[in-house]
Amino acid sequence: MGDMPTVRLATAIRRQVEAGPADVAGPPTREAIESYFVVAPQAQLWVLDDLDHPWPHVALFVDGKPVADRTMLDDPLQPDSVIEIWPALSE
């Protein structure tokens, strides 16, 4: 890992889909996430709804910052970027 963007699932999600981190094609963020679903297809139903938008209960981060546009997922990536997918927290 390091010369391609990496997708990582939070532990709580990995318990549901049994998928580890993976280097992926990209940018942008959407292409990287879709590449991840090739190696971890079971994650797609947990992360994206039927319109291919992240579920409201899912938080996406690129290099530690929330994605800017949850619909387009067009945040730019660097070769060493890390995309993290977490369950969203609410009160």
What does this molecule look like?
The chain is of the alpha+beta class. The chain has one domain (6-87): Beta-grasp domain (Ubiquitin-like (UB roll)), CATH 3.10.20. Helix content is 27%, strand content 21%. The chain is built from three helices and five strands. It has helices at residues 11-17, 29-39, 41-47, and strands at residues 6-9, 22-23, 58-62, 65-66, 82-87. The chain has a five-stranded mixed sheet. α2 (29-39) packs across α3. The chain is globular and about 30 Å long. The mean pLDDT is 87.
List the main descriptive attributes of the protein structure presented here.
single chain; 91 residues; alpha+beta; globular
Question: What is the rounded distance between the termini?
Answer: 35 Å
Number of strands: 5
Indicate how many domains the architecture comprises. 1
Q: On the 0-100 scale, what is the average pLDDT?
A: 87
SSE pattern, N- to C-terminal: EHEHHEEE
Q: What structural category do the secondary elements indicate?
A: alpha+beta
Sheet of most strands = 5 strands, mixed
Secondary structure topology:
Elements: E1 6-9, H1 11-17, E2 22-23, H2 29-39, H3 41-47, E3 58-62, E4 65-66, E5 82-87
Parallel strand pairs: 1-5
Antiparallel strand pairs: 1-2, 3-4, 3-5
Helix pairs in contact: 2-3
